[in-house]
Amino acid sequence: MAAVMLFNACGKTSDESTGGNPPADAKLTDVVLTQNLTFPWEILWGPDNKLWITERGGKISRVDPASGTITPLATLPDVVSQGEGGLLGMVLHPDFSATPEVFVAYNYNKGGAYTKKIVKFTYNGTTLVNPVVLLDNIPAAGIHNGTRLAISPDKKLYITSGDASVSSRAQDQTNMAGKIQRINLDGTIPADNPIAGSALWSFGHRNPQGLVFVGDRLYSSEHGNTTDDEINIIQKGRNFGWPNVEGFCSTSAEQGFCSVNNVAEPVYAWTPTIAPSGIDYYNNDAIPQWKNSLLLAVLKDSELLQLKLSADGSKVEAVNTFYKGTYGRMRDVAISPAGDVYIITSTGNNDKIIKVTRTP
Predict the structure, then answer these.
(1) Of 48, 217, 290, 292, which is the most buried if we count CB atoms within 10 A?
(2) Quick check: 203 pLDDT over 60?
(3) Between β-strands 28-37 and 351-358, what pairing exists: parallel, antiparallel or unpaired?
(4) pLDDT reported for residue 22
(5) What are the φ/ψ torsions at residue 100 (nearest 5 degrees)?
(6) End-to-end CA separation in angstroms for the chain
(7) What is the pLDDT of residue 18?
(8) Is the four-CA dihedral 144, 220, 202, 274 of positive or negative sign?
């Protein structure tokens, strides 16, 4: 049920119907806000009313959402960008004005081993200072790093970690690859985690690259192998199946594994695969047809997807497609309080921030 809407970089608008929505739906305008980025990974809306971005080579910057002016904040010297690895996820402290802390995840070389760590910095108004390592020794690789961050309403930090190219790690609860981790904002382990002393929150993940809270419900997007890219609702202690289960528990072997291992099935899956990456939640009146939807940046199919959720948020009721093939591979999406949408591309050649607004 995908309706395709195509726009160009000059800001043309479209009045095509989006999946049969009523005529009162807002028309959209898209423009290139800024360009000349190199493999940006994270884009988020900061409490300072600026966009914050990471680039895989190690750069963290702020971007003016009106002019597109980029202000570099820091370049982290120990970041090692290898394949799809490098500087990846970032999130800001929810009480940023009082506690200006910036949480980042990146890959580096540790004793000759490619490794991921989670580091907390303090923003001093100009740059990032006082690095504190919160979590280390997460296996990394040139592929399947996952590495999106989110902070829950009760102020716990969640981290997605892919299997780092070794699928068996995902089912090994003693290995931090192929997991979603949960830690306190000071790096300690919450007492109510599934395994005492372990950051593990869920396991059986292949390469989860999107993560967003909607209230206290946590959604994740995940790359499948040759089939079954997924949208999951993450649950405490649950097994999400990889590599024994791809998508739903549909084959006889999968059904047997699922019944024994308490596997949580996705709420939506794609075959053929689309390569889903960053997600954010849209619930603003500015674009009414997107209310109560996940917005998903897609790499292989080079598009933005609107995933319309059911009223209770437990199902994806409709999928609508935007900008397919217009801007190239899309890595992440952010939403401003005014309801404007910002998308980063991921081609490695003149990457851009795309701004989508309601047409005046």
Answers:
(1) 290
(2) yes
(3) antiparallel
(4) 53
(5) -80, 65
(6) 28
(7) 42
(8) negative
Alpha-carbon gap, residue 309 to 113, rounded angstroms? 41
Domain count, the chain: 1
pLDDT digits (tens, 9 = 90+) for 216-261: 999 999 999 999 999 999 999 999 999 999 999 999 999 999 999 9
Kind plus residue range of the DSSP H or E element containing 258:
helix 252-261
Q: Which residue has the tokens 């994740």?
A: 220
Query: 50-71 in b/e burial notation, b at 16+ Cβ within 10 A?
Result: bbbbbbbebbbbbbebeebebe
Give me the residue label for tokens 């202000």: 71
Q: Which domain holds residue 51?
A: 4-358
CATH number at residue 299: 2.120.10.30
Whether a cis peptide bond, with omega within 30° of 0, leads into 208 is: no
Quickly state the pLDDT bin for 24 (edges 50, 70, 90).
Answer: confident
Gap between the Cα atoms of 104 and 197, Å rounded: 22
Classify residue 328 as left (phi > 0), alpha (psi -120 to 50) or beta.
left
Q: How many CB atoms lie within 10 A of CB 273?
A: 18
Tokens 């000759």 label which residue? 112
Average pLDDT over the chain, rounded to an integer: 94
Q: Is 2's pLDDT higher than 70? A: no
